[in-house]
Write a structure and sequence with these properties.
Blueprint: H1 24-81, H2 85-94, E1 102-107, E2 110-114, E3 120-129, E4 132-141, H3 143-190, H4 208-257, H5 263-294, E5 303-306, H6 307-324, E6 328-332, E7 338-341, H7 343-359, E8 366-373, E9 377-384, H8 406-411, H9 418-428, E10 432-438, E11 442-450
Parallel strand pairs: 6-8
Antiparallel strand pairs: 1-2, 1-4, 3-4, 5-7, 8-9, 9-11, 10-11
Helix pairs in contact: 1-2, 1-3, 4-5, 5-9, 6-7, 7-9
The protein binds adenosine-5'-diphosphate.
């Protein structure tokens, strides 16, 4: 019967478009327009004020000049006409080119001729003819000035929105152009994922700030790419390593079960399976430790201890293995070496180095472990007279899953993880590990740990102390 499940198209999600005000180019344009409008308003105000004042000042000085000229002409005419005020006023006015202004003459407080502009500006000049003082007033309407200012006001009021609109368009265009590389970077970045981390952002000849941003982003991509590479390699190496013991176990179990066998045959198969599963357990343990170390989850639990006791214990544990291979394993104990570190991790580190030294050293050779105790640091040295390591390989042996001779190393029980664990433990204690080797003559691995915070721990009372 057909199942009732159907593949219905997903309902269209409403596009969650951000508001225009959230876009940088809109914000830049708005700020630019606001600033420009303010500047334009201040500028318009000053232009208007200056024009208004200068027009009034010019009119006033014209009127002053006209009043002075009219007063002189009036006095001359009074002399010529023998004091006829009306004729003198008319003659004086007719001789002047007044250009819209009016002349009036007062004797005392009384207007005796001419015209006075009722609403406008005026200027006056006094003249004494005979014994009588006359005041000559030049006046003009301020309507032309008001008309000019009104025209300017109209230009500014109509021009303002037009100019603001133009500024907004210009600002938007400019900011869009300036931010175009950012949009291009965002588009390119959106197309980068775990599968194409090798790609880089390209922004051509954009502004220096954006080039710096793109360069930083590209550097970040580079680092991510590298980590991804290491991770991928790690996963593929780990699966490869896991496959070998698993297929041996499967093959052996399959073979044992394929037909009826003797108890001795079953025992042999089970021994092989046990060996391989021990290897597998060791590998899984190493992988787990490295994964934890990568995730920063390994806690260093420091305690005060004697490093020479710790090394001595480790070396003792390997004596049987060394003896079975016909080699000499020796620890040169030169007295108390107090140190503050993680006992389990340090034990693991020494064990890995001693284990390697035994595995890569042949019959009749020797492995010597020693401690050099200085005021600043403490160095543990594991020296063997074994096969040695070619110089071109020295830079790689601390890499994960790196083995010189894969077949030989695997037969010797190695996965190429031992030294990376040694390196991690040394570095976790603030120290380092170095190697000195010569093919055919042997190798010396030196772990140098800073002697920080080490106190002499209390020794368990023993008979030797008595
Ligand atoms: P493994 O577990 O395979 O030994 P390690 O990380 O401990 O991996 O070592 C990496 C490689 O370094 C080994 O494959 C081996 O070839 C080389 N190596 C390590 N220690 C020694 C040593 N004492 N003498 C010679 N070669 C060594």
């Amino acid at each position: 019967m057909e199942k009732a499940t159907s593949c219905r198209p997903r309902p269209e999600l409403p596009l969650n478009r951000p508001r225009a005000s959230r876009f940088l180019r809109f914000r830049i344009t708005a700020a630019y327009v606001a600033f420009f409008s303010l500047l334009f308003a201040i500028f318009s105000f000053f232009v208007y004020e200056m024009l208004s004042r200068s027009l009034e000042a010019r009119l006033h000085s014209t009127l002053q000049a006209q009043a002075a000229t009219a007063a002189n002409l009036f006095a001359d005419e009074m002399n010529e006409t023998g004091g006829n005020e009306a004729t003198s006023i008319a003659e004086a006015i007719s001789e002047m080119s007044l250009n819209g202004s009016s002349i009036a003459v007062e004797r005392g407080e009384r207007l005796i001729g001419g015209r006075l502009e009722p609403r406008g500006q005026w200027a006056m000049a006094r003249k004494t003819v005979g014994k009588v003082e006359y005041t000559v007033i030049a006046s003009a309407s301020t309507a032309p000035i008001a008309a000019s200012l009104a025209a300017l006001r109209n230009v500014l009021v109509i021009g303002f929105p037009a100019i603001v609109l133009l500024a907004a368009a210009g600002g938007f265009l400019l900011s869009s152009r300036a931010l175009a590389p950012v949009a291009s970077m965002a588009r390119q970045a959106a197309g980068i994922s775990g599968s194409n981390l090798h790609r880089r952002l390209e922004i051509g000849d954009a502004a220096e700030e954006l080039r710096t941003l793109a360069a930083s982003f590209n550097e970040l991509l580079g680092r991510l790419d590298q980590s991804f590479d290491v991770m991928r390699r790690f996963v593929s190496d780990a699966s490869h390593e896991l496959r070998t013991p698993l297929s041996v176990i499967q093959g052996e179990a399959g073979l044992a079960l394929s037909r009826e066998r003797s108890a001795a045959d079953y025992k042999e198969s089970l021994t092989v399976i046990l060996d391989e599963s021990r290897q597998l357990a060791r590998l899984v343990d190493d992988l787990l430790n490295l994964a934890r170390a990568d995730a920063g989850k390994v806690r260093i639990e420091r305690e005060d201890l004697y490093l020479n006791d710790l090394v001595s214990g480790c070396v003792k544990g390997y004596q049987t293995m060394a003896a079975s291979r016909g080699m000499r394993l020796e620890f040169r104990d030169e007295g108390d070496a107090p140190y503050c570190g993680d006992e389990t991790l340090l034990r693991r580190m020494i064990a890995n180095l001693v284990d390697n030294a035994i595995r890569y050293t042949g019959e009749g050779e020797s492995v010597t472990v020693s401690i050099e105790h200085g005021p600043e640091s403490i160095a543990v040295r594991v020296a063997d007279t074994g096969v040695g390591i070619p110089p071109e390989e020295l830079g790689h042996i601390f890499e994960r899953f790196y083995r010189l001779d894969k077949a030989r190393s695997r037969d010797a029980g190695g996965f190429g993880l031992g030294l990376s664990i040694v390196k991690f433990i040394a570095e976790a204690h603030g120290g380092s590990v170095t190697v000195d080797s010569c093919v055919g003559k042997g190798s010396v691995f030196t772990v140098t740990l800073p002697a920080v915070g080490s106190r002499t721990p209390a020794r368990e009372p023993s008979f030797a102390d008595d």
